[in-house]
Amino acid sequence: MTYTSLMPAFLTVDVLGLLGILVWHMQGQHRPTARLIVQILFFSSMTAVLIVSGIPPHRVIAGETNGFAVYMGTAARVLWWVHLAWATIGFIRLYIVLDRRPQEARLIQDLIVAAVYLGVTLSIVGFVFGAPIGTLVATSGVVAIILGLALQNTLGDLFSGIALTLGRPFSIGDWIQLADGTEGRVVQNNWRSTQVLTPANNLVVLPNSTLAKVGLTNLTKPDESHLVILPIRITSDSRPAEVEAILKSELQTCQCIVQSPAPIVALKGIDAIAIDMELQFRVTAPAARTPARNEVIDMVHQCCSTHGLSLALPAQIYLGNAGNSLGKKPAA
Fold it and tell me: GO terms for CC (predicted)?
């Protein structure tokens, strides 16, 4: 095959490749279907020109030995492989969708896209430039080990992000609580970190490797209603059943708590000084805990004033006073 016969085909493929890139960018990111059609049309046209001219896109032929023809042929083949990669990726982005599981679909898409880019890169290096792929892979393996050691923390975050995405312990918008007491709403989750907006309106950035190791409670699932427990002590001069009935009736008047399921007054214990009990009620969301607790505390204070009940001191104070009395020496 002569130099003169190769040049028109190479020039046509180069023009089609560059024009395809220009048109592809003009479609914009919000028109994936149009982009895919453009990619397929230009890739098909480039392939047809190469096949009709008898030029294999995957290897250099003997006629390309003269200066400018080598450059034109190399550019044509690189553009052909690039368009092949983009057409494949466009198809993946458009058609690989997991119903109601956007995070998993995005993860699978990203992994396949990375594999496509890696395969096309190796193909260009091996077929177009004639580099030994075996040696390159062996060298890249050594480089990968070195980079793996240098980027150990980053890779740990990356694979932890994959595990969190597949395991789905939480989703964007969920309210989570960590073992160290940190809690808030998940506002962003990517490959490296997870961002949580706390009730204090602070943005906490948690590396995925750290998040995968700590205990995590999802307060949003199965729903956002949240149980709040308020311990109180009422002096034992009142009958426990009467105190329970009074507090249960007053809880039904509170506006900030959920009435279904109904709030509970749980008797926990009794001694000579006080009745220990817990007021158990639910709120619509974790962020509503403070207003609900404030309302219930105010209700308990008003209830004691209205019904003649008295709050008892904490048991630790009585134990401390008793210990002081036992250890006190009698006056001379």
Answer: plasma membrane
Mapping DSSP onto H, E and C, the string for 241-298 reads: HHHHHHHHHHHCCCCCCECCCCCEEEEEEECCCEEEEEEEEEECCHHHHHHHHHHHHH
CA distance 39 to 22: 11
Cis ω for the linkage preceding 222 (within 30 of 0):
yes
Cis peptide bond prior to 261, omega within 30° of 0: yes
Residue 297, pLDDT score: 95
- Determine, yes or no, domain membership for 243: yes
Q: What is the DSSP letter of 229?
A: E
pLDDT value, residue 139: 63
pLDDT on residue 73: 79
Tokens of 223: 């729903």
Q: What are the backbone angles phi and psi of residue 204, rounded to the nearest 5°?
A: -100, 125
Half-sphere exposure of 321 (CA within 13 A, CB side): 6
**Do residues 200 and 232 both lie within one domain?**
no
Backbone angles phi, psi at 82, to 5 degrees: -65, -45
Do 128 and 11 share a domain, yes or no?
A: yes
Q: Which of 149, 182, 202 is the last residue of a domain?
A: 149
**13 and 119, same domain (yes or no):** yes
For 78-114, the DSSP string reads: HHHHHHHHHHHHHHHHHH---TT-HHHHHHHHHHHHH
> How many of the other CB atoms lie within 10 Å of CB of 284?
15
What residues in the chain have per-residue pLDDT under 70? 1-5, 58-67, 69, 96-105, 107, 133-155, 316-332
Which residues are CB-neighbours of 148 under 8 A, at least 6 positions away? Answer: 155
Query: Does a structural domain hold residue 8?
Result: yes
288 is in which domain, residue-wise?
Answer: 226-316
CA-to-CA dists, residue 123 to 41, 57, 81, 87, 95, angstroms: 22, 11, 8, 16, 25
Q: How far apart are the first and last CA of the chain?
A: 125
